[in-house]
Amino acid sequence: MTKPHERVSNAEREAAARMLADAAGAGYLTTEEFDGRVSVAYSAVTRADLDRVAAEIPSEWVRGWEKSRRRADRLVAQQASARKHLAAYIAGSGLMITIWFVVGLATGAWYPWPLWPILGWGFGVYHQTKPLRQARQLRNENSARQLGRGTAF
């Protein structure tokens, strides 16, 4: 539940400006309305000020925009997490291979023990990135479908 007299952050002002830009792109605002509302959004102090900039824009569209923004934010966070996990995996694998090589040179024991932790960890990395790969594939399929619309066959 939002309180109309709560102060808003710079991030919330930026999000309101992005929403207004998308609403103008969708045809809900004219250029003059967009300019005026963006200046109000950037000078907003309270939630009530930000609520005024979204006035007259269909609430269903605003809710859909917010839902897609949250989905995009989650995807960005998942991608960042996967990159960090992959970097740790590569660094850890490199370290294990280096230790194996040094021990092999020093003792002559060349059993490839790093293979097992590298495979296990790699399995985890693969499964962490699987939803990201599926989302990318779905996006590619949707864009290919969009390209096919309106063409004559």
From TrEMBL:
Residues 71-126 form the 2TM domain. Keywords: Membrane, Transmembrane, Transmembrane helix. The chain crosses the membrane at residues 86-111. Signal peptide: none annotated. Coiled coil: none annotated. Pfam families: 2TM (PF13239), DUF1707 (PF08044). The keyword Chloroplast does not apply. The keyword Membrane applies. Residues 7-58 form the DUF1707 domain. This is 2TM domain-containing protein. It comes from Asanoa ishikariensis.
